[in-house]
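Quick one: structure for this chain?
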Amino acid sequence: MNINPVESAELLNQIKKDNDYYKSIIENNSFYIIKTDLEGRYTYLNPFFCHMLTVKSEDWIGRESLELVVAEDHQICFETVEKCFSASNETHWVILRKPLPNGSVISTQWEFKMMKDENDNPVEIVCIGHDITPLIMKQQELQALVDITSAQNKQLVNFTYIISHNIRSHVANIIGIIDLNDTDNEEDRAMTWSLIKRSAKSLDATIYNLSDIITIQSNTNLPTQTLNLKDEIQLTVESFEVLIRDANATINYNFNNQAELTTNTAYFDSIVLNLFTNAIKYKSPERDLDIDISFYKKDNYDVLLFKDNGVGIDLDTHGEMIFGMYKTFHGNLDAKGLGLFIIKTQIEAMGGKIEVESKLNQFTSFKVYFKQD
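Got it. Here's what it folds into:
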């Protein structure tokens, strides 16, 4: 078909108009549009991309595109480009973070597409993206709310355990004292009433400390205070003095009387109470119970080492589930499998951790790590 010069000029003019139109769309669109060669070097950056990232197109043509991607996202960018080569007829999506000159970072979602020539040979990669920073921030806010709710639920579970387990121990101790009061000996009766008063005061202190946790609302930080370590432990010991005496237990404090620990009082008392009751429950029938308590600092932790000479635990068999809920290991009918679970959940709620060592019929030691700022 022959085209006369007039028609040819009109066709070229229309092509130019079309090119100008599409170029205008690309350059004035509120989407990021960039192109790279097959080695990942910029060949085109649209004005909106340059404006949002505060860069000049002429400064970046020929430079590595990864320079405008945060280092942590380089690998996923590589992987997306590889997909463009391996599945060149498909569109591939990726989220990349872009650094801004002011030091902040924006989150962007991109569509990568391999472009080919008339012979179906790859020639360049076109990337179209948009800012999703507000969406990411909303997701982070939602996740923060989920984390807060989870932390509050954990605190509520811990609070429930303290109520059901620890206060019951105080009550059991008082009942034991009352049973001892069934005597006509005035001296014994006076002593038991003294023990009841002491236990009642200890119970009152536990309830008072728990009120600190009840007052926590949206704040997930547990209230803390600095305690004299020995005084606080002895208060707990006094709360079940009868059980200590019945077990013929000796408590050895291997630390300075002035040692202090900053922690949540209710959780600390609960942890110590559970360590003691656990040692008493699993004392060896072959010897009197000895409990050694040490205290030292390690890294960013204050460490409470609690060691007894009881029946021990077979860690080879039970090590992986020793801190599990409702897990028991000795066939003790009184065991509920809550004590160690409570300790672990409470110390972890405070940012700490717990470790155990044990040998059957020799000893069990617990290292409780209290996180310090």
